From TrEMBL:
Keywords: Membrane, Transmembrane, Transmembrane helix. The chain crosses the membrane at residues 282-304. It comes from Hevea brasiliensis (Para rubber tree). Gene3D superfamilies: Ribonuclease Inhibitor. Residues 115-244 form the F-box/LRR-repeat protein 15/At3g58940/PEG3-like LRR domain. This is F-box domain-containing protein. The lineage of its organism: Eukaryota, Viridiplantae, Streptophyta, Embryophyta, Tracheophyta. InterPro entries: F-box-like_dom_sf, F-box_dom, LRR_dom_sf, LRR_FXL15/At3g58940/PEG3-like.
Length: 314
């Protein structure tokens, strides 16, 4: 009798060890596990069993970087074709939302394929759209569907032409905006910043055609600007605590005068806009003006010091 019970227990234990507990986990738990793997490794889980064949295509985050592509592949067009193989599988079988997409693999996208994929993402409720590293023959046009993403909280764009469509009402949830090597005119940038009421971080790097910069956003906390421009003006930014500006002069440019401008690059006007700022870094042409400003302050301190001494004697 004891032997029979022992045998039954051993069978039960053996059956329990054969249960695929990972496959039976809730999808939200599996999604958390898989998104922490490089996308190439997540795709390899398709060989585990029939249950896993398409699990990876339903991820909520897709990061296309150099880990997705074999290191021996150097042709930029061929690298994009490898990415498109993954994209096509995702588009054909994905269900549910996609919260994050990041492109950080040096490749050369086809414009129509790229537009189609971006349009697919906008229908999936994208929250983080990050395009960091790729190669186009010329600046690519940002699809207008990007401006129809009500849940977008993080937007990073590289090497595109940025124009606001007529229907654009703003990004209500956008907290972080980074533009790098982007073509955008001054008025468009000003309108974009003003129409992002939740914006906290703004980074502008090597912007094309940016003559005048006006920063006005009551929720902005962190600003980094490293680009060619002729003048900058700060509006109402009460929460701004960190400012990092490197100014590269635009030789040969003539910019229209605006009422808020005093002299071009009026450092005193800029510094007067900062109330509760904790960190301020100025580089480039700002330094030339900074030395004059500091020299003036030093002369004034000496003058007032002498006046106080005279008053004490009297």
């Amino acid at each position: 009798m004891n032997n029979t019970r022992k045998h039954q227990k051993s069978i039960e234990m053996e059956n329990q060890t054969k249960i695929d507990r990972i496959s039976n986990l809730p999808w939200d738990v599996l999604d958390i596990i898989l998104v922490h793997l490089p996308l190439r490794e997540a795709a390899r889980t398709s060989v585990l069993s029939s249950k896993w064949r398409y699990k990876w295509t339903g991820l909520s985050q897709f990061v296309f970087d150099d880990k997705c592509i074999h290191s021996s592949m150097v042709d930029k067009a061929a690298r994009w074709m490898e990415i498109m193989k993954i994209i096509n599988k995702v588009q054909s079988s994905h269900s549910g939302p996609i919260e994050k997409f990041k492109l950080a693999a040096y490749c050369c996208p086809n414009q129509s394929d790229f537009d189609q994929w971006i349009a697919f993402l906008t229908k999936k409720g994208i929250k983080e759209l990050i395009i960091q590293d790729f190669s186009f023959i010329k600046r690519f046009k940002l699809p207008s569907c990007v401006f129809c993403c009500p849940k977008l909280s993080c937007l990073e764009l590289f090497g595109c032409i940025f124009k606001l469509p007529a229907f654009f009402k703003g990004f209500d949830c956008l907290k972080s905006l980074k533009l790098s090597q982007v073509f955008i005119v001054s008025d468009t940038l000003e309108s974009l910043i003003c129409n992002c009421p939740a914006l906290e971080r703004l980074t502008l790097l090597n912007i094309d055609h940016l003559a005048f910069v006006r920063i006005h956003n009551p929720n902005l906390k962190y600003l980094k600007l490293d680009s060619k421009f002729e003048d900058i003006c700060f509006g109402y930014n009460p929460l701004l605590v960190s400012v990092d500006i490197r100014m590269i002069p635009m030789y040969g440019w003539t910019i229209p005068w605006r009422p808020e401008q005093g002299k071009v690059c009026n450092l005193i006007r800029v510094l007067g806009s900062f109330g509760g700022i904790n960190r301020l870094c100025l580089y480039g042409q700002f330094l030339e003006v900074s030395f004059l400003y500091l020299k003036l302050c030093f002369i004034l301190l000496i003058y007032f010091g002498q006046m106080l001494r005279i008053n004490k004697i009297i």
